[in-house]
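Subject: complex prediction, re-run

Hi both,

The earlier run crashed halfway through, so I resubmitted it with identical inputs.
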Amino acid sequence: MSTGGAFGGNRGLRPIPPEKGIFPLDHLHECDTEKKEYLGCLKSSANKSEQCRHLSKKYLQCRMAKNLMAKQDMSELGFSGVKELDSTGDTNNE
Amino acid sequence: MSWSKACRGTQWFSSYLHNIHPTSRTVPLVPCSRYGACSVVNQHNLLSKRAFWESMLLGGAHPHYSTHSMITETKSRKMLYYLTAVVFGMVGLTYAAVPLYRTFCQATGYGTVEEKIARHFESGTVTEREIVVQFNADVADGMQWKFTPSQREVRVKPGESVLAFYTAENKSSAPITGVSTYNVTPMKAGVYFNKIQCFCFEEQRLLPGEQMDVPVLFYIDPEIETDPRMDGINNLILSYTFFKVSEETTRDLVDNKSSVPVQETN
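This time it finished cleanly. Structure:
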Protein backbone atom coordinates (compact mmCIF):
# COMPACT_ATOMS: atom_id res chain seq x y z
CA MET A 1 0.00 0.00 0.00
CA SER A 2 2.45 2.63 -1.09
CA THR A 3 0.41 5.58 -2.20
CA GLY A 4 2.67 8.19 -3.72
CA GLY A 5 2.31 11.93 -3.51
CA ALA A 6 0.12 12.11 -6.53
CA PHE A 7 -2.26 14.91 -7.28
CA GLY A 8 -3.27 16.30 -3.93
CA GLY A 9 -0.82 14.14 -2.07
CA ASN A 10 -1.35 14.38 1.63
CA ARG A 11 -3.97 17.01 1.19
CA GLY A 12 -6.11 14.45 -0.52
CA LEU A 13 -6.06 12.08 2.44
CA ARG A 14 -9.44 12.03 4.04
CA PRO A 15 -10.59 10.17 7.14
CA ILE A 16 -11.54 6.64 6.30
CA PRO A 17 -14.46 5.05 8.13
CA PRO A 18 -13.51 2.15 10.36
CA GLU A 19 -13.38 -1.28 8.83
CA LYS A 20 -15.66 -3.08 11.20
CA GLY A 21 -18.01 -0.28 11.98
CA ILE A 22 -18.68 1.80 15.00
CA PHE A 23 -18.77 0.93 18.67
CA PRO A 24 -22.13 1.65 20.23
CA LEU A 25 -21.93 3.60 23.45
CA ASP A 26 -21.77 1.71 26.70
CA HIS A 27 -24.31 3.82 28.52
CA LEU A 28 -24.84 1.37 31.32
CA HIS A 29 -21.13 0.91 31.97
CA GLU A 30 -21.42 -2.81 31.72
CA CYS A 31 -17.86 -3.48 30.70
CA ASP A 32 -16.27 -1.02 33.04
CA THR A 33 -14.28 -3.54 35.07
CA GLU A 34 -12.60 -4.95 32.01
CA LYS A 35 -11.83 -1.47 30.86
CA LYS A 36 -10.31 -0.55 34.18
CA GLU A 37 -8.22 -3.70 34.19
CA TYR A 38 -6.88 -2.90 30.76
CA LEU A 39 -6.03 0.68 31.64
CA GLY A 40 -4.36 -0.45 34.83
CA CYS A 41 -2.31 -2.97 32.92
CA LEU A 42 -1.23 -0.29 30.47
CA LYS A 43 -0.08 1.95 33.29
CA SER A 44 1.90 -0.79 34.96
CA SER A 45 3.56 -2.00 31.81
CA ALA A 46 4.69 1.50 30.77
CA ASN A 47 2.07 1.66 28.09
CA LYS A 48 3.26 -1.32 26.15
CA SER A 49 0.28 -2.71 24.39
CA GLU A 50 1.76 -6.15 23.86
CA GLN A 51 1.50 -7.14 27.48
CA CYS A 52 -2.09 -6.09 27.79
CA ARG A 53 -3.49 -7.70 24.69
CA HIS A 54 -5.22 -10.43 26.59
CA LEU A 55 -7.11 -7.85 28.60
CA SER A 56 -8.18 -5.94 25.53
CA LYS A 57 -9.42 -9.22 24.13
CA LYS A 58 -11.37 -9.76 27.34
CA TYR A 59 -12.90 -6.32 27.03
CA LEU A 60 -14.04 -7.00 23.49
CA GLN A 61 -15.49 -10.32 24.51
CA CYS A 62 -17.40 -8.59 27.28
CA ARG A 63 -18.79 -6.17 24.75
CA MET A 64 -19.90 -8.96 22.51
CA ALA A 65 -21.52 -10.73 25.40
CA LYS A 66 -23.46 -7.66 26.47
CA ASN A 67 -24.60 -7.02 22.92
CA LEU A 68 -22.57 -3.88 22.59
CA MET A 69 -20.67 -5.17 19.64
CA ALA A 70 -21.33 -7.43 16.69
CA LYS A 71 -20.17 -10.93 17.42
CA GLN A 72 -17.08 -11.66 15.42
CA ASP A 73 -14.30 -14.14 15.47
CA MET A 74 -11.37 -12.82 17.43
CA SER A 75 -8.98 -13.52 14.60
CA GLU A 76 -11.00 -11.16 12.45
CA LEU A 77 -10.10 -8.39 14.81
CA GLY A 78 -6.47 -9.27 14.71
CA PHE A 79 -6.29 -11.19 17.95
CA SER A 80 -5.24 -14.50 16.52
CA GLY A 81 -2.50 -16.04 18.56
CA VAL A 82 -3.25 -14.15 21.74
CA LYS A 83 -3.33 -16.53 24.64
CA GLU A 84 -5.48 -15.59 27.58
CA LEU A 85 -4.02 -15.73 31.06
CA ASP A 86 -6.76 -17.89 32.46
CA SER A 87 -7.29 -19.88 29.30
CA THR A 88 -9.93 -22.47 29.74
CA GLY A 89 -9.67 -23.58 26.16
CA ASP A 90 -13.17 -22.54 25.25
CA THR A 91 -12.11 -19.74 22.92
CA ASN A 92 -10.28 -20.71 19.78
CA ASN A 93 -7.05 -18.81 19.86
CA GLU A 94 -5.70 -19.76 16.48
CA MET B 1 2.55 15.71 -51.14
CA SER B 2 4.84 18.42 -52.35
CA TRP B 3 6.08 15.90 -54.83
CA SER B 4 2.64 15.61 -56.45
CA LYS B 5 2.25 19.39 -56.47
CA ALA B 6 5.57 19.69 -58.19
CA CYS B 7 4.41 16.96 -60.53
CA ARG B 8 1.33 18.91 -61.48
CA GLY B 9 3.40 22.01 -61.91
CA THR B 10 5.53 20.36 -64.50
CA GLN B 11 2.58 18.93 -66.37
CA TRP B 12 2.21 21.93 -68.64
CA PHE B 13 5.95 22.06 -69.00
CA SER B 14 6.32 18.49 -70.15
CA SER B 15 3.32 18.81 -72.49
CA TYR B 16 4.88 21.98 -73.86
CA LEU B 17 8.14 20.22 -74.43
CA HIS B 18 6.29 17.30 -75.95
CA ASN B 19 4.64 19.64 -78.41
CA ILE B 20 7.90 21.29 -79.31
CA HIS B 21 9.74 18.04 -79.87
CA PRO B 22 7.11 15.49 -80.78
CA THR B 23 9.58 13.15 -82.30
CA SER B 24 12.43 13.98 -80.06
CA ARG B 25 14.68 11.19 -79.25
CA THR B 26 15.85 12.48 -75.96
CA VAL B 27 14.10 12.65 -72.69
CA PRO B 28 13.55 16.30 -71.66
CA LEU B 29 16.34 17.28 -69.40
CA VAL B 30 14.64 19.82 -67.16
CA PRO B 31 12.11 17.63 -65.34
CA CYS B 32 14.70 14.95 -65.17
CA SER B 33 17.16 17.13 -63.33
CA ARG B 34 14.43 18.50 -61.03
CA TYR B 35 14.11 15.13 -59.41
CA GLY B 36 17.68 14.18 -59.84
CA ALA B 37 16.71 10.78 -61.06
CA CYS B 38 18.31 10.95 -64.39
CA SER B 39 19.32 7.75 -65.92
CA VAL B 40 21.33 7.24 -69.03
CA VAL B 41 18.93 7.21 -71.88
CA ASN B 42 19.11 4.23 -74.08
CA GLN B 43 17.75 4.98 -77.50
CA HIS B 44 16.26 1.56 -77.82
CA ASN B 45 14.09 1.94 -74.77
CA LEU B 46 13.36 5.52 -75.42
CA LEU B 47 9.61 5.35 -75.82
CA SER B 48 8.95 3.19 -72.73
CA LYS B 49 11.22 5.36 -70.62
CA ARG B 50 9.47 8.46 -71.83
CA ALA B 51 6.11 7.00 -70.98
CA PHE B 52 7.42 6.12 -67.56
CA TRP B 53 8.73 9.64 -66.90
CA GLU B 54 5.53 11.18 -68.18
CA SER B 55 3.45 9.05 -65.89
CA MET B 56 5.62 10.12 -62.97
CA LEU B 57 5.30 13.75 -63.89
CA LEU B 58 1.60 13.59 -64.40
CA GLY B 59 1.24 12.33 -60.88
CA GLY B 60 -0.54 9.03 -60.95
CA ALA B 61 -2.50 9.28 -64.15
CA HIS B 62 -0.96 5.94 -65.12
CA PRO B 63 -3.51 3.24 -64.30
CA HIS B 64 -1.00 0.82 -62.78
CA TYR B 65 0.23 3.47 -60.43
CA SER B 66 -3.28 4.52 -59.24
CA THR B 67 -4.46 1.05 -58.09
CA HIS B 68 -1.30 0.71 -56.08
CA SER B 69 -2.06 3.92 -54.26
CA MET B 70 -5.68 2.85 -53.77
CA ILE B 71 -4.56 -0.38 -52.11
CA THR B 72 -2.25 1.45 -49.74
CA GLU B 73 -5.02 3.89 -48.99
CA THR B 74 -7.42 1.12 -47.99
CA LYS B 75 -4.73 -0.50 -45.92
CA SER B 76 -3.96 2.72 -44.11
CA ARG B 77 -7.63 3.35 -43.50
CA LYS B 78 -8.02 -0.08 -41.93
CA MET B 79 -4.98 0.55 -39.80
CA LEU B 80 -6.46 3.85 -38.70
CA TYR B 81 -9.72 2.24 -37.63
CA TYR B 82 -7.87 -0.49 -35.79
CA LEU B 83 -5.65 1.96 -33.92
CA THR B 84 -8.58 4.20 -33.00
CA ALA B 85 -10.40 1.17 -31.64
CA VAL B 86 -7.34 0.30 -29.57
CA VAL B 87 -7.21 3.81 -28.12
CA PHE B 88 -10.87 3.72 -27.16
CA GLY B 89 -10.43 0.26 -25.75
CA MET B 90 -7.62 1.43 -23.49
CA VAL B 91 -9.58 4.41 -22.24
CA GLY B 92 -12.60 2.24 -21.54
CA LEU B 93 -10.44 -0.24 -19.66
CA THR B 94 -9.11 2.55 -17.49
CA TYR B 95 -12.61 3.60 -16.53
CA ALA B 96 -13.70 0.05 -15.89
CA ALA B 97 -10.69 -0.63 -13.69
CA VAL B 98 -12.16 1.15 -10.66
CA PRO B 99 -15.31 -0.95 -10.13
CA LEU B 100 -13.47 -4.08 -11.22
CA TYR B 101 -10.84 -3.50 -8.54
CA ARG B 102 -13.51 -2.97 -5.96
CA THR B 103 -15.35 -6.19 -6.76
CA PHE B 104 -12.08 -8.09 -6.80
CA CYS B 105 -11.20 -6.84 -3.33
CA GLN B 106 -14.61 -7.68 -1.99
CA ALA B 107 -14.64 -11.13 -3.50
CA THR B 108 -11.20 -12.19 -2.39
CA GLY B 109 -11.06 -10.24 0.85
CA TYR B 110 -7.62 -9.02 -0.06
CA GLY B 111 -6.55 -6.01 1.95
CA THR B 112 -9.00 -6.34 4.80
CA VAL B 113 -7.85 -6.54 8.40
CA GLU B 114 -7.91 -10.28 8.84
CA GLU B 115 -6.27 -10.96 5.52
CA LYS B 116 -3.45 -8.56 6.17
CA ILE B 117 -2.84 -9.81 9.66
CA ALA B 118 -3.02 -13.42 8.55
CA ARG B 119 -0.53 -12.72 5.81
CA HIS B 120 1.79 -10.96 8.24
CA PHE B 121 1.44 -13.78 10.75
CA GLU B 122 2.18 -16.45 8.20
CA SER B 123 5.16 -14.71 6.72
CA GLY B 124 6.64 -14.83 10.16
CA THR B 125 8.38 -11.52 9.91
CA VAL B 126 9.35 -10.21 13.28
CA THR B 127 8.47 -6.60 13.74
CA GLU B 128 11.19 -4.94 15.69
CA ARG B 129 10.07 -1.43 15.41
CA GLU B 130 8.09 -0.05 18.25
CA ILE B 131 5.90 2.88 17.44
CA VAL B 132 4.56 5.21 20.06
CA VAL B 133 1.02 6.36 19.47
CA GLN B 134 0.03 9.42 21.43
CA PHE B 135 -3.51 10.56 21.89
CA ASN B 136 -5.06 13.92 21.61
CA ALA B 137 -8.65 14.99 22.16
CA ASP B 138 -10.35 18.20 21.14
CA VAL B 139 -13.78 19.66 21.42
CA ALA B 140 -15.34 22.20 19.13
CA ASP B 141 -15.78 25.72 20.37
CA GLY B 142 -18.83 26.28 22.48
CA MET B 143 -19.38 22.62 23.20
CA GLN B 144 -19.61 21.86 26.88
CA TRP B 145 -18.05 18.48 26.86
CA LYS B 146 -14.94 17.38 28.57
CA PHE B 147 -13.13 15.06 26.22
CA THR B 148 -9.80 13.50 27.18
CA PRO B 149 -7.86 10.37 26.34
CA SER B 150 -7.73 7.77 29.08
CA GLN B 151 -4.11 6.92 28.40
CA ARG B 152 -1.48 9.31 27.26
CA GLU B 153 0.28 6.99 24.85
CA VAL B 154 0.56 3.40 23.77
CA ARG B 155 3.65 1.60 22.58
CA VAL B 156 2.64 -0.65 19.80
CA LYS B 157 4.20 -2.94 17.24
CA PRO B 158 2.90 -2.84 13.67
CA GLY B 159 0.46 -5.60 12.90
CA GLU B 160 -1.03 -5.84 16.39
CA SER B 161 -4.48 -4.58 17.12
CA VAL B 162 -4.57 -2.13 19.96
CA LEU B 163 -7.39 -0.91 22.13
CA ALA B 164 -7.47 2.67 23.37
CA PHE B 165 -10.01 4.65 25.37
CA TYR B 166 -11.24 8.18 25.47
CA THR B 167 -13.44 9.71 28.11
CA ALA B 168 -16.21 12.10 27.24
CA GLU B 169 -18.29 13.91 29.81
CA ASN B 170 -21.26 16.16 29.25
CA LYS B 171 -20.80 19.06 31.60
CA SER B 172 -23.88 20.97 30.61
CA SER B 173 -27.43 20.60 31.84
CA ALA B 174 -28.93 19.47 28.55
CA PRO B 175 -28.42 16.38 26.44
CA ILE B 176 -25.99 17.11 23.68
CA THR B 177 -25.41 15.08 20.57
CA GLY B 178 -21.97 15.15 19.07
CA VAL B 179 -20.11 13.57 16.25
CA SER B 180 -16.39 13.11 16.04
CA THR B 181 -13.76 12.86 13.42
CA TYR B 182 -10.12 12.00 13.62
CA ASN B 183 -6.82 12.53 12.00
CA VAL B 184 -3.35 11.15 12.28
CA THR B 185 -0.12 13.07 12.21
CA PRO B 186 2.36 12.90 10.58
CA MET B 187 0.11 12.95 7.57
CA LYS B 188 2.10 10.62 5.40
CA ALA B 189 1.95 7.93 8.07
CA GLY B 190 -1.81 8.23 8.15
CA VAL B 191 -2.01 5.79 5.29
CA TYR B 192 -0.69 3.01 7.49
CA PHE B 193 -3.06 3.69 10.34
CA ASN B 194 -6.10 1.44 10.09
CA LYS B 195 -9.06 1.68 12.38
CA ILE B 196 -10.94 -1.51 12.97
CA GLN B 197 -13.64 0.00 15.11
CA CYS B 198 -14.16 3.35 16.71
CA PHE B 199 -16.75 5.78 17.89
CA CYS B 200 -16.32 8.34 15.20
CA PHE B 201 -18.55 9.44 12.36
CA GLU B 202 -21.71 8.56 14.21
CA GLU B 203 -23.78 10.76 16.44
CA GLN B 204 -23.31 10.09 20.11
CA ARG B 205 -25.76 11.45 22.61
CA LEU B 206 -24.81 12.16 26.16
CA LEU B 207 -27.23 13.02 28.90
CA PRO B 208 -26.35 15.91 31.21
CA GLY B 209 -23.61 14.96 33.58
CA GLU B 210 -23.07 11.61 31.91
CA GLN B 211 -19.56 10.30 31.54
CA MET B 212 -18.73 7.84 28.85
CA ASP B 213 -15.68 5.79 28.01
CA VAL B 214 -15.39 5.27 24.33
CA PRO B 215 -12.99 2.76 22.79
CA VAL B 216 -11.00 2.74 19.60
CA LEU B 217 -9.60 -0.44 18.09
CA PHE B 218 -6.85 0.08 15.58
CA TYR B 219 -3.69 -1.40 14.18
CA ILE B 220 -0.72 -0.16 12.26
CA ASP B 221 -0.09 -1.72 8.90
CA PRO B 222 3.06 -3.87 8.99
CA GLU B 223 4.06 -2.44 5.63
CA ILE B 224 5.17 0.68 7.40
CA GLU B 225 8.48 -1.04 7.97
CA THR B 226 9.22 -1.49 4.29
CA ASP B 227 8.43 2.05 3.27
CA PRO B 228 11.62 4.14 3.10
CA ARG B 229 9.70 7.34 3.67
CA MET B 230 8.69 6.12 7.12
CA ASP B 231 12.23 5.51 8.30
CA GLY B 232 12.44 8.23 10.88
CA ILE B 233 8.88 8.00 12.06
CA ASN B 234 8.41 6.41 15.44
CA ASN B 235 5.73 8.67 16.79
CA LEU B 236 2.17 8.94 15.68
CA ILE B 237 -0.43 11.20 17.12
CA LEU B 238 -4.05 10.19 16.90
CA SER B 239 -6.29 13.18 17.34
CA TYR B 240 -10.05 13.15 17.78
CA THR B 241 -12.29 16.16 17.66
CA PHE B 242 -15.90 16.29 18.76
CA PHE B 243 -18.35 18.61 17.06
CA LYS B 244 -21.79 19.49 18.27
CA VAL B 245 -24.69 18.24 16.25
CA SER B 246 -27.56 19.42 18.35
CA GLU B 247 -28.38 20.43 21.83
CA GLU B 248 -31.76 19.71 23.26
CA THR B 249 -33.01 22.64 25.27
CA THR B 250 -35.20 22.29 28.31
CA ARG B 251 -38.10 23.73 26.31
CA ASP B 252 -38.01 20.68 24.07
CA LEU B 253 -38.09 18.41 27.07
CA VAL B 254 -41.03 20.23 28.60
CA ASP B 255 -42.96 20.12 25.34
CA ASN B 256 -42.33 16.41 25.03
CA LYS B 257 -43.52 15.83 28.53
CA SER B 258 -46.73 17.72 28.07
CA SER B 259 -47.58 16.06 24.77
CA VAL B 260 -47.09 12.57 26.17
CA PRO B 261 -49.98 11.55 28.43
CA VAL B 262 -49.01 10.69 31.93
CA GLN B 263 -48.56 6.94 32.10
CA GLU B 264 -47.43 6.50 35.62
CA THR B 265 -50.24 5.91 38.00
CA ASN B 266 -50.15 6.56 41.70
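The mean pLDDT of chain A is 71.

- K.
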